[in-house]
Design brief:
325 residues, alpha/beta, Rossmann fold, UDP-galactose 4-epimerase, domain 1, seven-stranded parallel β-sheet, 10 helices, 16% strand, globular, binds NADP nicotinamide-adenine-dinucleotide phosphate, binds ligand F7E
Length: 325
């Protein structure tokens, strides 16, 4: 039986990845940081099938202990401060979690067992003000937020430890991926949740920032499959994971409202306070390498994703907020 350790298991991707690895027969351990409130909503359905180790990306000794105790074959580093606007409010802490945290974890891997295979959650935010369209593995980075800058450091330290110490370390450069488990502050879930609330008479309006921003959106359940595939290769590498299609925030809203028979123009208002100090205007990924080498193809379309999210939020709210996503 293979064994995997996941940081960020309580997050959107961590919960989907844990589902996938359990299905594949893995023994799964999650690193969870201490909190005075329960953070396990997304993994409540699998708590009896995963082991939990307390640990924090700020504390290298806790990472060493988690690895020593769980003896993983594979580590997936999904833990991070992942909300872009918050990275301007807390740039130093973002660097500690999202950038230096990766070095701490890579050190822990080196010292405990350098044969462990390692996955780093890199991000399309590293491309920022894009230098070419579509973006691929060789496209230069120009991050536009402290989050993007931290992810660029994390990406290169992972490449560096692979080249310096021969670690089997891979980076998935993932474009935006969403689903019913997405945090409510991200635009996709903010929209799907508001559409459901407006349909049910629980909310009047939806305030958004930049409606013209373009993103390459996919479904998180598809994207965690690519993470796993990267660690099954004989040779480590870096891969863009994207749908290859692009839509605006306006189009996302239009399809989401139409799903419940409403016109988005009657409900969406723009709020300048939600604009970012520096915006990533447009992202579009080229996942040819992942298709060719990993055999990875996404299954859920953009429209299918928007419908899935709206339907899930409607169902959850009709159930009094208790339905599992
Ligand atoms: P998410 O839902 O925000 O989850 C982040 C996870 O990181 C949570 O489990 C959180 O734990 C954990 N975490 C935060 N700080 C930590 C710390 N100091 N020590 C240990 N754990 C910590 O993010 P996601 O959408 O699943 O994304 C997963 C990873 O992929 C992140 O690294 C993100 O930056 C990256 N990424 C995401 C996307 C995307 O579109 N979703 C695209 C590219 C890359 P708590 O529950 O305790 O807060
Ligand atoms: O914004 C615009 C906003 O916060 C998408 C993270 O998972 O993906 C995510 O980062 C776009 C931006 O995601 C609102 O200005 C308009 O252009 O959903 P988001 P993100 O910043 O792209 C990358 C790949 C990651 O790695 C990150 O961890 O939507 N937008 N109005 C808005 N965004 C938000 N949040 N809220 C609005 O009201």
């Amino acid at each position: 039986m293979k064994s995997a350790l996941i940081t960020g298991i309580t997050g959107q991707d961590g919960s989907h990845l844990a589902d996938l690895l359990l299905e594949k027969g893995y023994r799964v351990t999650g690193v969870v940081r201490r909190s005075s409130v329960d953070q396990s909503e997304r993994i409540a359905h699998l708590l009896d099938r995963v082991e939990i180790q307390q640990g924090d990306l700020l504390d290298e000794s806790s990472l060493v202990k988690a690895i020593e105790r769980s003896q993983p074959d594979e580590i997936y580093n999904l833990g991070a401060m992942s909300f872009v606007p918050a990275s301007w409010e807390q740039p130093v802490l973002t660097g500690e979690f999202t950038a230096l945290g990766v070095t701490r974890l890579l050190n822990a891997v080196r010292f405990v067992n350098p044969r462990i295979r390692f996955y780093q959650a890199s991000s399309s935010e590293m491309f920022g003000r894009v230098r070419e369209v579509p973006q691929r593995e060789a496209t230069p980075f120009h991050p536009r937020s402290p989050y993007g800058v931290a992810k660029a450091y994390a990406h290169w330290i992972t490449v560096n430890y692979r080249e310096s110490y021969g670690l089997h370390a891979s980076c998935g450069i993932l474009f935006n991926h969403e689903g019913p488990r997405r945090g409510r502050e991200f635009v996709s879930r903010k929209i799907s949740d508001a559409v459901a609330r407006i349909r049910l008479g629980m909310q009047q309006k939806l305030r958004l920032g930049n409606l013209d921003a373009r993103r390459d959106w996919g479904f998180a359940g598809d994207y965690v499959r690519a993470m796993w595939l990267m660690l099954q290769q004989d040779t480590p590498g870096d891969y863009v994971v994207a749908s290859g299609t692009q839509h605006t925030v306006r189009e996302f809203s239009e399809i989401a409202f139409a799903r419940v028979g409403l016109d988005w123009k009657d409900y969406v208002e723009t709020d300048p306070a939600l604009l970012r100090p520096a915006e990533v205007d447009s992202l579009l990924g080229d996942a040819s390498l992942a298709k060719e080498r990993l055999g990875w193809v996404p299954e859920v379309s953009f429209e299918g994703l928007v419908h899935m999210m709206v339907d899930a939020d409607l169902g959850r709210l009709k159930d009094g907020g208790n339905r599992r996503q």
